[in-house]
Here is the input.
Amino acid sequence: MNGAGPSGAPAATGREYLLIRDMPSSERPRERLARYGPEHLSNGELLAIIWRTGSSGRSRESALDVANRALARLGGLAGLAGLAKASTVELKGLAGVGPVKAAEVQAALELGRRLTALEPAQRTEIHSPRDVYHLVASEMTLLD
Here is the structure.
């Protein structure tokens, strides 16, 4: 968690900024998404983009800090699964997460669930290695 130290200066976390707007543009989640694509962002970065804002008040935090803390509290590396299973009450119990952020993440996760539940006729069918190639060739051209 990132916050201000007793002097009002950023706490010793290795970062010299408190909010996303204070981050170098090359490290901001939205800019990284535009530059590298969503598959190159962490779960915390993707969640920060959905939530857009952090927390205000005395313990001001960036959306990225709130997102990373929420994921850690809901299950560490498996925090995404915990986030998906969390109720509105559980989400609102996380510091920096109110009813709006809870609704935003629940809506985004529901869209993901609906996408995975599409009827097989709506999914790409793979019958041969050539089908696999056509499905992933554009993504694989970007690999080193």
Observations:
- The mean pLDDT is 81.
- The chain has one domain: 20-140.
- The two ends are 33 Å apart (CA to CA).
